[in-house]
Amino acid sequence: MKKWFMAILMVALFALVACSDSTEESSTENGSNSDDVTEEAIGEGKVTVWAWDVNFNIKALEIAQEHYQAINPDVEFEVIENAQDDIVQRLNTSLSSGTTRGLPNIVLIEDYRAQSFLNAYPDSFYPITGAFNADDFAPYKLAPTSFEGENYGLPFDTGVTGLFVRTDYLEEAGYTADDLSIIDWEEYIEIGKDVYEATGKKMITTDPSDLGLIRTMIQSAGAWYMEDDGVTPNLANNEALKASFEVYKKMVEADIMGFHSDWSQFLQGFNSGDVATVQTGNWISPSIRAEDSQAGLWKVVEQPRLSGVDGAVNASNLGGSSWYVIDIDGKEDAVDFLTQTFGSNVDFYQDLVTEIGAIGTYSPAAEGEAYQLEDDYFQGQRIIATFSEWAEDIPQINYGMHTYAIDDILVVEMQNYLNGKDLDDALADAQAQAEASLN
Hints:
By secondary structure, the protein is α/β, with parallel strands linked by helices. The protein is 43% helix and 11% strand. The longest helix is centred in the N-terminal third of the chain and has 28 residues, at 2-29.
């Protein structure tokens, strides 16, 4: 009986040592430094991805998967579509509870929201510094995708903005598209008055509950709602923000600005011919092109800049997102997939442009043939190459943690300003509200 007991004890101790060794090895493999990614660990598992938009982001993943499996067919993929708001909610719910169970290996996060996740859950995301050449990407994408000196996001699409113009309406007012190239917003307003008088068409339409137009204006001047630390509100003494509010009000008072309340009304505004220009991200191109009857009537020029604001340029951004790796088992395959496709593959980016019109922020891709194609809808312009060139000029800023929360505050103060409230008072009140609610 004694010998039997000792045998059982020895087996148990041996098993305990083996488990200890296994646990230590697993802990080493799951370290949070991208240098730990080894060739031996790659190509043996399954990669799960969360993203939104079937026709854009999901399609981009499918194209990337085809390219990757041509060189590494052993990795399985599961791409799961979620609405962007659902992804934000599910990430916050899981990570705030301290668990990564059920989370994907890769998740798409909008650039405006990235810093809030990286600040709140830095240990949950896997740094990919050194896994790709950050210098190959548009500089403005690096600040929102980085945290404490480490690259966490693999930059994806650009929201580089442009001003889409109806050349026939301009001609009726005595202008050409070139007259709107490299101008400031004051000049834009004066041209808009003439276009409205000649054609009866509003120059622009905007959603009063969405300050995307204001965000593009301030970023074009290298400014944002937050200080450079990404945490401290910067509203009351923000020169670019004040100038943007003034431009917005001038457009309203000049009666060249129309209003819409949802996405379908926005599209209807230019597809129906009621709007002379569309100022937004390049991703609107397919929606403009959807109206066949207007082929050859549109061109795209640079976004107007703020006048009298130091550093203001004719380039900005609206939207855009990047890929992040969750620090769980399978991160090695996830990093390899991203770096072999979105991070370095010029041919892959040519397919993105050709098949879905997606413009990435990977600079070497701009030399490819697909980027140089002329677009007959836009009077033969090479709009993909043009947008790619403008993306290089977008000022790099830190979006910080509270873009949409501050948007909500400023929407109210914008209406107060339009209704007669002093602008300095409006921005000072916005500053006080932001400091009280966000700090």
